[in-house]
User: Fold this.
Amino acid sequence: MSVDLRERVRPEPPVFESAMKDTADLRNNPTEAWIESLRARYPTEPSVDAALTRKLRKRSADREPYRSPTLKDVSRRLSDFLAKQADGPIAIHNVRALTGGASKEQFVFEMDWQYQGEMRRGERMVLRCEPAASIVETSRRREFELMQFGGTIVPAPPVYFIDDDGSIMGTPSLVSGFVDGVTKPSRLTSNVSGIGTHFPQDYREALAPDYIRCMVAMHKAPIPENALPSFVKPAVGTTEAAELVINWWARIWAEDLYEDAPIATLAEQWLRANAPALDHLSLVHGDFRTGNFLFDEETKKITAVLDWELGYLGDRHADLGYLLTEFYVTREDGKPFHCGLFESEDALLDAYANAGGLPIDPDKLAWHKIYSTWKQLILSLGCALRACEGQTHQDVLLSFLSAGGYPISEALRRLLEKHG
Assistant:
């Protein structure tokens, strides 16, 4: 599948004040004409477009505040859904909320069911559902396919069932297996969603090589032609991969911003002007950081890579650039570490090379640092604020995360000054 970007409209620099006055009402109450104008202006992958379009079509200023479903409702919907999907009779037990994460609403439960001729009793499962809005609007179908494919490459929760359109569960949902593990040592504290987790030396020595092996395996995995049918496979030797992700996040910014930020527009223009050609098609996780993998605290081995919803097929430099942004720096005795695991950029890149990783181009890595920081700004000053207006179970958390937009803006300014 490919997307024709030849007729792409590249946004002109806006007149900030008038642009905000003209479009503020449309962001609160999107019209079909405005939605179609955004789709034409920012062409991206069809499944990404579908998720973003669905988000806008259900948005209105007078919508009711989101309320989490009761456990009784979840149990009833789950039983109805799985009874139609499972091979044989099922029984659901002990449904309860699962904490963690800044995006989807999750529940854990036990199920008696038959799988591939084997009767399983009391198997723990995870239900992952969309609230009315979240910090990232993504496709459950894409996430389902990525978890299926990624699970053949690295440890990942097995996925079993999906309600694409939410016709049974009330909201798009998927059901996966439960994997044991923790996201941080039990004796440590950290900020929400894994942000700020810093691993002691003994954990770094065990986890960093395991982490890098997972990243290298994802980046080097062959992508069969029939794999991941909901994904575009950008052409090697072109800038299509870069332009698809620029359009993805430029559209999100246009849909979700409250207040224009000139630095965001400057970054978009720089990214378009310097878009790198793809030299190898890789599976990109898109959010592979602390908080998004589980490990066994005793063996210190990764048991599962989580949160695949932002993944895509594209440039391997994206995962490395994301990890090297200032937002994921932790400190020990004043010394900066990347995601609490790597004591310097060179240490990360050396570990990647020693694990058999693909060659790293410094210019492409720099481009993806700027891209990742720009994306973080959009998530903080656009998506988090927009979703926390009574449309998510994580309104307090998203309000907290939005404060990161200002130091992220300064980090983006410094990167553009360095590379512009």
